[in-house]
Amino acid sequence: MEFKFSDYLLAKQSVDDRALNKDVLSILQTYFDMAGPSLSIIEAGGGIGTMLARLLRWNMLPPHVGYTLVDSMPENIAYAKTWLPQWAASAGLQTETTPANELRLFDAKHEVYLRLICADIFDFIARRPPQADLLIAHAFLDLLPLPNGLPDLLSLSHRMAWLTLNFDGVTILEPILNPLTDEYIIRLYHRSMYERPGGGDIQSGRHLFSYLLESDASILAAGASDWVVYPRNGKYQPEEYYFLHCILHFIEESLSGNRRLDPQAFKDWLTVRRSQIERGKLTYIAHQMDFLVIV
Ligand SMILES: C[S@@+](CC[C@H](N)C(=O)[O-])C[C@H]1O[C@@H](n2cnc3c(N)ncnc32)[C@H](O)[C@@H]1O
């Protein structure tokens, strides 16, 4: 199966929809409701823009929103520029575009001025952009060198930050094939996350409780936001079928050539796990945490 990162980001939307902690979300909604008619948002590591689509789809935003999406992958920014207007049209919104990676999405009730910025988030912060009312970092913080990068990141907002889907070091694949092999492969996979070039904290979920306090942020709400993907009537939704294959692709990509693994045993393990997806037998759980904080 061909792997494309933008397709992975599209595919995980429904898994993320279910995962987002609804207690945290309801307090965020209260904040939106009290914020008045306009709000500025910066999203760090925003990918192709699915969070903005979600907030519009869930009708959460105030009437006027300035939304700045920053992502370091040029492919994501290019994809967002074509995908978001298509998505907006399907949702009954109109779009105006400018050559400078700016979009205006609007209908009778909403108006979102979107700026798409291709940059490393720390380069963006170094330019001292105007602080936003809300910082969003979704499925992003666990990729950063924590806790060092956190105060700089939080400085993007002067009020609130909604920090979601922070991985917390637990991956579950059911049913178990062989307890020792399963545990060993998952342990090596987690270790490979620590070894990513930009840093990364695979227990960012639990560590953020203290990291946030050390960064002078106060936690307004926190809760689990686990990914839970399981077959229904022996099948997955097409995008969740693809999502599961992406997870196995990430495990394969991270561990191929790892000297601590027997290549044939790893190949066999992947083959069986993939066949479980085909047969509608695999359940996948990843433990993650959401936070809403005052900065
Ligand atoms: C797991 S993806 C999540 C994307 C998006 N938030 C979503 O959930 O659909 C992480 C994103 O962070 C971006 N990214 C990683 N490191 C970054 C950095 N240092 N600065 C800006 N973006 C970064 C990647 O390009 C990727 O799009």
Q: What number is the mean pLDDT?
A: 96
Number of domains: 1
| Spatial gap, N to C terminus | 43 Å
Poorly predicted segments: none
* Cα-based radius of gyration, to the nearest Å: 20 Å
> How would you describe the shape?
globular
State which percent range the strand residues make up.
Answer: 25-35%
Oligomer: single chain
Largest sheet: 10 strands, mixed
CATH superfamily caption: Vaccinia Virus protein VP39
Judged by helices, strands and strand pairing, the structural class is alpha/beta
> How many strand units?
10
Order of helices and strands, N to C? HHHEHEHEEEHEHEHHEEHHE
CATH topology: Rossmann fold
- Report the helical percentage: 40-55%
CATH class annotation:
Alpha Beta
The number of helical elements comes to 11
Unique ligands: S-adenosylmethionine
CATH architecture: 3-Layer(aba) Sandwich
Describe the structure.
It is a single chain. The protein has 295 residues and is of the alpha/beta class. The protein has one domain (5-294): Vaccinia Virus protein VP39 (Rossmann fold, 3-Layer(aba) Sandwich), CATH 3.40.50.150. It is built from eleven helices and ten strands. It has helices at residues 5-11, 13-19, 22-34, 50-57, 74-90, 121-126, 150-154, 179-194, 204-214, 238-255, 263-278; strands spanning 38-44, 64-71, 94-98, 102-106, 111-118, 132-138, 157-174, 218-224, 227-229, 283-294. The mean pLDDT is 96. Residues 9, 45-47, 50, 70-73, 76, 120-121, 138-140, 143, 198 line the site of S-adenosylmethionine.
